[in-house]
Amino acid sequence: MHKTFISYHHAREQDLKDKIIELGSGDNFIDKSVSDGDIDVNLSEETIMRKIREEYLGDSTVTVVLIGEETYDRPYVNSEIQAALWNKSTGLVGVVRDDLYDRLYDSTTCTSPDCNCGVSLRTRTIEFNTKVPFLIRENNQRLEDNKSTSPHYNDSEAYCAIIKYSYFIKNIEKVIDEAFEKREKTFDLKKKNEKGVKTITNPYGF
Fold this sequence. Notes:
Strand order of the largest sheet: 2-1-3-4-7
CATH topology: Rossmann fold
Mean pLDDT: 88
Number of helices: 8
Strand content: 15-25%
Order of helices and strands: EHEHEHEHEEHHEHH
Shape: globular
Number of domains: 1
Structural class: alpha/beta
Distance between the termini: 39 Å
Helix content: 25-40%
CATH class: Alpha Beta
Radius of gyration: 17 Å
């Protein structure tokens, strides 16, 4: 399995992370996270991103972001995601707690006049935009350059898949392999957090 960095909110998602280490191959996961005071926030953004990549992400080629109720609001998680994408792209996956995942989507059917295929769709709820970290959300909707004319797409077509934790825990290697393989394809990636997103250099989102 590919070397994987896990980004998560320690106070709320430690149980999810521990289960992954228990069931997965522990040697393939990098057990480091940026904590308060680890990095001088007065350094340039370029320097901070480089330090996170070199000192925390290391030689990882995939980043798994565990998403719970407060993850979107965690400056260190948002900065870790940005660092993973900063210069060389890392495979990226959002793994959502089951109870939260069920609130992120409604089940609908395609009725688009351009398609009208009747396929079952996941339609994002308001909570999708308020609970999913910015760069996870943005890179879940950016498709490959050879975009399909279909009005909908699935996670296999987006750079960052967003999946339920209970699925991930049963398919750890498969999900990580799929994220790794997307690194070789061409995507229109969003690599930087925007103003309003809490990060190490912007902890209040101003």
